[in-house]
Amino acid sequence: MFYWLMKYVVIGPVIKAVFRPWMVGRRNIPTEGAAILASNHLSFSDSIFLPLMIDRRMAFLAKSDYFTGKGIKGWATRMFFTATGQLPIDRSGGKASEASLNTGLGVLGRGELLGIYPEGTRSPDGTLYRGRTGIARMALEARVPVVPVVMVDTGAVMPIGQRLPRVGRVGIVIGEPLDFSRFEGMEGDRYVLRSVTDEIMVALQRLGEQRYEDVYASTVKDRLATAQAAKAPTSRH
């Protein structure tokens, strides 16, 4: 109830009036049953616009830091993410990654839509980067289709590091569902998982015509951080 109230009464109408989002390919989203919506990731706002523009309820896996803030700001952030269907996950790896996988499988097991960013993090420069294989494992274990989604101009509206959005139009392009039933029972094969993930990334690249680089976005971010640290002036005593 809280989700629908925020979507159609409190948050949704305001966001639609200000940013006038458009969508192409709405018919490609299944009207019933579980599916994974695999999206490129340009901005924090991707997780707001996509759930807002589709008729069915969906959930995103969001880093747990968004749910642990203190004070009024922390409470407001927590309420906002809960209202927009975000589920807290720990991205530290190991057992935390397994727990994240199980959380996603729980959503799919209920016959719902699950939003995933295969790159694992926001693109630092608008390039589409290599996908993580967790999405493939979920798709094969849950036996669900994967729907490619391309967010358009969300990075311009709310770039990384900017607290308040700029006013501008954003768009969403929904591609045709990808069927991986031919790999049923092979979710334990890492070569299959890589092949499925790469197929998803190819579909995203063709749909959005983004420049693609076969390296993880997190690796690029680490390189940029290292380069920035090297350029920073050092204090002298």
UniProtKB/TrEMBL annotation:
<keyword id="KW-0012">Acyltransferase</keyword>
<keyword id="KW-0808">Transferase</keyword>
<dbReference type="GO" id="GO:0016746">
    <property type="term" value="F:acyltransferase activity"/>
</dbReference>
<protein>
    <submittedName>
        <fullName>Lysophospholipid acyltransferase family protein</fullName>
    </submittedName>
</protein>
<dbReference type="Pfam" id="PF01553">
    <property type="entry name" value="Acyltransferase"/>
</dbReference>
<feature type="domain" description="Phospholipid/glycerol acyltransferase">
    <location>
        <begin position="35"/>
        <end position="154"/>
    </location>
</feature>
<dbReference type="InterPro" id="IPR002123">
    <property type="entry name" value="Plipid/glycerol_acylTrfase"/>
</dbReference>
